[in-house]
Write a structure and sequence with these properties.
Blueprint lengths: L5 H7 L13 E8 L11 E6 L5 E3 L11 E5 L3 E5 L8 E7 L5 E9 L7 E6 L5 E6 L6 E7 L5 E7 L11 E2 L5 E8 L6 E9 L5 E3 L4 E2 L9 E4 L4 E2 L4 E9 L10 E9 L5 E2 L8 E2 L4 E8 L5 E6 L2 E6 L7 E2 L12 E6 L4 E6 L4 E8 L2 E4 L17 E9 L2
Parallel strand pairs: 16-21
Antiparallel strand pairs: 1-2, 1-31, 2-3, 4-5, 5-6, 6-7, 8-9, 9-10, 10-11, 12-13, 13-14, 14-15, 17-19, 18-19, 19-20, 20-21, 20-22, 23-24, 24-25, 25-26, 27-28, 28-29, 29-30
Length: 397
Amino acid sequence: MHCSLVSACLVTTICTGIAVAQSPVAYVYVAEDAHDTTGSLNSPISVYAASPGGKLTQIKGSPFTKPLGTIIGTNGTHFVTVDQNQTTHQYLRVYDVSSDGAIGEEVSKQDLHEWCGADQGGVLDHTGQYVYVVESQSCGGGYVSFALSKKGELTFKGSFTDGSEPFFSPPVFSGNDKFAYTAISNFDYPCPTDTFLGLGRESSGALESISFSETDPTTPSGGYQVTQNTVPTADSTNHLAASVTFLDGDCGQSGPQYNGLASYTIQSNGDLVSTNTWENVAPLAAYLAPGGIKANPAGNILAAAAGTGIQFFHFNGADPITPFAGNEIIGTSGYIQDIAWDSDNHLYALNYKSGRLHVYNVTTKGVVEAPGSPYLPLNSCSGGGCYPQTLIVRSVP
């Protein structure tokens, strides 16, 4: 083969006709739900490199068996997990991560029994410099804050507990990392409802409660109230998207209920304001699955784990959220446990029913399942004998 245009050869082929290898756009980490003989939750982790087209290839050394417990996240140089062992000391653990996505040796750990004997996962902030661990409700619930150094060392920064209202999930941070929100449940008789818990960050990085107001979408006449159904998601310009339900004055028992996705703006003081109405809230085609809702990094597309699959929406900042054309659910036989995006508009979804990992190529014009999808995350999970429990994606700059 003769090439007269060098640039053309570099884009697609070498002059011999062999395709040029494509660099990964993301690394995908999937933890298996498995127990060892002592009852501890031991989670081997499969790691995939994702191509620009969304095709996944397991990296060398995958699955990795050293990390224990639940994946919290990675900042590109370190990988953080929290133990789920209820009988011995639980640790927040930090591992090295190489440039090819491989999980290396443990570099530090923090005994969490000083605060709680059982923890429920956690989250990194957008900078990757702070770690927030969710305490179990058996300890009253709360968040424990740690700083993560460039060497992977952990430093305790503070703890926050709100024993009056249960909350069970890591918080979602605003685009500027100044505020964080989650959904909390109050058990007010006779109509228990969910609302937002608002948190601010101290200069140390620790979370603290803030006094804030919440302006929900306007409701139908007749005494309706708004309840949040899941942890919200956020874009980079300080907007939240949340699942909401409009209940009538009799807890939704004597009249129609309206539910869907609503948008909120995070004010400079942490207040949440929605200009939506019950009439323009984006309708969900089915109940939300545990995967909840997630915004893509660009902040213009939402994915909702709904019913047997995933429903997609346009995220329009403060304006009403709008469903993709057709408003259909993608996938008809699953139960989506977790979803995550990379920066190239690939959506990754764990199907708890089959134990498989689905990959979708998503644009504002539509959704197509990527070549090779779905995948069985771990070699030891043949025949659906075990199920993934945690999904984390790190985009490659």
